[in-house]
Write a structure and sequence with these properties.
two-stranded antiparallel ribbon; homodimer; 601 residues; alpha+beta; Butyryl-CoA Dehydrogenase, subunit A, domain 3; seven-stranded mixed β-sheet
């Protein structure tokens, strides 16, 4: 059975050293995030995830969720107990506002717990993950009464939440929604329609489930501008605010999926269910996007999480399994064969995984810090910069992070050879689970269009200019440091490819928007490559400074320097190839008629 | 449910036009392969695969194989009937030698049937596929009596075959084999040991199964030079040559796998089973490699096959599913939304699939022709050239073909959005089934080392020089043709990257063989990219010549020209990036000690 050990050392490096969280101690929420507190949370969360969540990951996949005849759903063996323990330990409330019972710590720390949880058991992590999204939307758009009624119990995890967007005929294009909301005399609505792919839609973990549902009021505009958001609790609250009457929302079936079997992905049937409007009529999409953006960062993190856990097991196997001999001669002549760790092609896959994971972790935690700064930074200018940067980076974290996370999980499965294909070893589950992250919360193609069609041009390109400046500044500084200058030069070249690609879009996309669509996915990858390169430069800067102090765990910092060099030589070159593809435009891509795609005749 | 329609038009284009099979009519076996015969086989095989094999692909995945308490195994519903129909129709005997009951047609035509079969039902195709490998080894290494006893019934498909290499402690490194062969007074052997991952190891499709088993005789050298190959029939033949006494080989269990559920992947326990040596003692590996090389081409073809069937269903969905609007304005203003086919990012994935599939098909069928020419070409020089080329290309077809085939299957799943993740739509099965092809018959890392560590340097680099010359010649000719010169120039650049990478290996790998290992996978991909570029240039040449004749189906040839241009702009650029990675060598890749791969502390 695969195992998981939280990457505590690397996480502490990013938080305490690279990001230097302690230096933000003057900001609200950060005052309690001392290094001691950070270390404790990292270590304890790691322990919890390894010991409680990881052991039920494989059994959860095998058993899956069960829908009973009455429409109720039970989660796999051990999930209820693990969920109670998760709530009991307070992991759900970490970064939630104190006024609703949260601990008020920075979001950055919640991201750490989210990564570890998703590595240990992605299907499990989705239950609290969905609740987070729903509570964020309630916090942002709810009336004081709504917040009071729902938030405290959602924040502790006593109740859970869901997002209901998709319908059979309607995925990305939310203008196609058909679910109806009929206003009632008491100000509530009757919600009727079918929602599909509802993660954590029905289960036995919590005493109530608060569904947030997109629907149309009578006469609403027939487009995405006619969508409203509704709170639809599984149990309507009684006069004491406790779960009362069962509402008209039922699980029609559980989807049979490729992976994340332990999360119940439901078809939810709404049959005149009682709902309450959340936020303004016809402005439901805006409120939903509060959830969506948080959720997209969480999904990007899942890419990292599956890459990390599969990497750990890849390393274990590579050190244990013996086949063949090192190319330069036997590494262990007394044994009948060497560990496959000695083979360069195995090492290539392990190193690719290592540098992706550590670079991605630095990016995700930096991203989480930007979310904190969006709210808590001292000046409007700083808050705006953080908001610009995280808005720009969200599709990259989600899209690039999950594309690459999936690649890594596949490579780690590959390390196992034939055993990687057999369920018992657990590697194929990581691949199946990782696959969904490229799809949900907007496919990675949708992320690419969000990046290129919306974020790049937004506010006159202010965000991308800030991104370029941030990296230019880091490069300029690094070039004056002998230990970093080679890295800086290579990153500058890759950044140059991104700048050229950006310019190409500016010069060509107006005349033909298909040129933008044709290059968007390439651009997202170029930007992901450059961004991780930037975070490797930052990590190398931190490591190089630490090495100057002759630290006790010198090997850790030396490995950072080698890894940074490996990243530069093995990941950055793709930026140039992707730019060439992007500059090919859309002419040949869009030239062929439908009939040309038929292969028979 | 997904569907499959054989790509008959494209196959006929490759066979009749690009390869001009009719021009080989003077060679043995080819005399009957007239264009009429070719067209009939292509069309009938396509029909059979679409109508008989494709409909039981999804149900076969769901049901899987069942092992009963007595060790017997039943295949999923409909498989036995489909197998009987396959045998009845004569698909098994197509390219088999007439002296053993085959039809004696070129191997090239058998490859067509193999592609269609693997697209329609990969798990099914493995049953006759394994028999092919086993009968090829028997043909190459068997005594006249052995051939007489086993070949006729294996060739018709009345009996099937297997390859038994892997053991729990022994995968790639066959020197670690422990299965023992004790010589008996009558010249036979008693085989004892455990083999794992034996595809088609036990089933109910045939009345006998002829296992070919690697084992060690007493006192054999303790390395891969001490391995012999044995024929171990499930039922020992009686005096009439019919299945008689049940032999001591039993299925201990069926592996639970990620995919290809309808193929029974068995643990086979040999308990003093009666076996007969095939070929010379201690030379078992050589005989096994006859099977292996054929099998590797077949596996490369599976990469294409899964890419093709997933592509077809991707196209269907993209034309059917409506979400959003074209970037340049509504394509179908009267409808509520446009088909997702209008979105450039969807088209990018479809075009990537189309040009990979058509390029790969041209490569595979050309490769099959080389196999034919190895035996049948008129001069020793031609036979040797064909042998050099197919030996060189086998790891590329297997390694690059299955890596990319898997990518394509994943992209086609992506086209489906959330529905791609749900079993009912069938796309996730294509991904799960395609995944094995990167692993079995030698992982793609092993293929890369076969290419770079063995094939490149073999006979003073004769094969790679012949490969370069073949492409150089085609480029030189194309440069004189206005319709092809741009394509030729781009291919020349990519080929230049491969030549430079080859040179880099020559200059660096002697000093440090790890440099070779570190770049082998990159090299295999560079060569795959260049090779498909070469076949796109050849297809464009053929199409451009056809267009000059103002043919009836002009659109088909025009699509070839556009596709060739798309391939050049979207696939070739990666060759340069891969070369840069390769030239980074192994220093950073191999620098870190074991401890540095631990993520906790």
């Amino acid at each position: 059975m695969p195992t998981y050990t939280a990457p505590t050392r690397d996480t502490r490096f990013v938080l305490n050293e690279m990001l230097d969280l302690a230096s933000y101690g003057n900001l609200p929420g950060f005052e309690n995030a001392t290094q001691d507190m950070i270390d404790t949370i990292v270590n304890e969360a790691g322990k919890f995830c390894s010991e409680v969540l990881a052991p039920i990951n494989q059994s959860g996949d095998e058993e899956g969720c069960t829908r009973h005849e009455d429409g109720s759903v039970t989660t796999p063996k051990g999930f209820k107990e693990a969920y109670d323990a998760y709530v009991e330990a307070g992991w759900a409330t970490l970064a939630k506002p104190e006024e609703f019972g949260g601990q008020g710590l920075p979001h950055t720390l919640a991201m750490v717990v989210e990564e570890f949880t998703a590595s240990a058991n992605q299907a499990f992590g989705m239950y609290p993950g969905l609740t987070n999204g729903a509570s964020a939307a309630l916090e942002a758009a709810g009336t004081p009464e709504q917040k009071e009624a729902y938030l405290p119990k959602m924040i502790t995890g006593e109740w859970s939440g869901t997002m209901n967007l998709t319908e059979p005929q309607c995925g990305t294009d939310l203008g196609l929604i058909r679910t109806k909301a009929e206003p009632q005399a008491d100000g509530s609505y009757k919600i009727t329609g079918t929602k599909i792919f509802i993660s954590a839609g029905e289960h036995d973990l919590t005493s109530n489930i608060i569904h947030l549902v997109l629907a149309k009021t009578p006469g609403a505009p027939d487009s995405s501008k006619g969508i409203s958001l509704f709170i639809v609790p599984k149990f309507i609250l009684d006069e004491n605010g406790e779960p009362g009457t069962r509402n008209g929302v039922t699980c029609g079936s559980i989807e049979k999926k490729m992976g994340i079997h332990a999360n119940s992905t439901c078809v939810l049937n709404y049959d005149e269910a009682t709902g309450y409007m959340l936020g303004e009529e016809n402005k439901g999409l805006a409120a939903m996007f509060v959830m969506m953006n948080a959720a997209r960062l969480g999904v990007g993190l899942q890419g990292l999480a599956q890459a990390e856990v599969s990497y750990q097991n890849g390393v274990t196997y590579a050190l244990d399994r013996r086949q063949g001999r090192g190319l330069a001669g036997p590494a262990e002549p007394e044994a009948k064969a060497d560990p496959i760790f000695v083979h360069p092609d195995v090492r290539r896959m392990l190193m690719d995984a290592k540098v992706f994971n550590e670079g991605m972790r630095a990016l995700c935690l930096w991203g989480a810090l930007q979310v904190d700064l969006t709210h808590e930074a001292q000046t409007e200018e700083e808050r705006q910069l953080a908001d610009d940067l995280i808005g720009l980076m969200t599709p990259v974290i989600k899209g690039y992070g999950t594309d690459k996370g999936y690649d890594i999980a596949n490579n780690m499965q590959q390390v196992y050879g034939g055993h990687g294909y057999v369920k018992e070893w657990g590697m194929e589950q990581f691949v199946r689970d990782a696959r969904i992250a490229m799809i949900y919360e907007g496919t990675n193609g949708v992320q690419a269009m969000d990046l290129c069609g919306r974020k790049l041009a937004s506010k006159g390109g202010r965000a991308i200019q800030a991104f370029f400046k941030m990296i230019d500044d880091e490069i300029a500084e690094a070039k004056t440091n002998e230990a970093l200058s080679d890295l800086a030069t290579k990153l500058e070249k890759a950044l140059g490819e991104q700048k050229a690609a950006t310019m190409w879009f500016m010069q060509n996309a107006m005349a033909n928007p298909n040129h933008l669509g044709a290059g968007a996915h390439h651009y997202m990858h170029i930007m992901g490559i450059v961004t991780l390169g930037f975070f490797w430069l930052k990590q190398a800067k931190t490591a190089s400074a630490a090495l100057a102090g002759n630290p006790e765990d010198k090997a850790f910092y030396e490995a950072k320097m080698t890894s940074a060099a490996y990243y530069a030589e093995r990941f950055l070159p793709d930026a140039g190839a992707l730019r060439r593809k992007l500059e090919a435009g859309s002419d040949n891509m869009m030239a062929l008629p439908e009939e040309a795609f038929s292969t028979a005749a």
